[in-house]
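# nightly structure sweep
# worker-07 picked up a monomer target from the shared queue
# config: single-sequence mode, recycle default, output format = structure tokens
# input follows
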Amino acid sequence: MPNPKLQHVPAKAQTIGMWLFLAALTMLFGATLVGYFVVRSRQPVMAQSLQLPRTLWISTALMLAGSVSIHFALDAARRERQQELRRHLVMTCIFAGMFVIVQTPAMMTLLRQHRQVAATQHVFLYGLIFFLILVHALHVVGGLIGLGVTTAHAFRGRYDHEDHTGVKSAAMYWHFLDVVWIIMYLGIFFAG
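# output follows
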């Protein structure tokens, strides 16, 4: 019979693991943003400024709403308010799903713009912006999977004031994606 103490990872180890994971992702997103700014600085002046899809502002609002709802979910877990925890986790899943849905046509618009501008001006910024947004959106999809698991655990009553590390990890990841999105979007917006 397996030893139950060996099957449970201590909360502190899970939190440290999440911090290390976020540090690695910081390097990834930092490198891609630095790469974007280097490429942007070396591109010839475009005949027109970058025109980002307006739906990216909606995406930003959805990211912020997800951060607020996951914050409330974590607070509810700490206070053992199970219904509130579940409601806020479901809301966060909805905001994350809506983010990906809104991103899809925005990315298609960026690809169309890339083809038009690259054909005439040999400038590839729209393609690079598409890539940056795609990398972020894929991390949101991955986070949505983890958030789904966390939500399922919440519906099974797994979290309480003593053990809510799963909710804390989901919140840390979502807040990280939120900060990355804001820095990335505003950087592209103001550099364009």
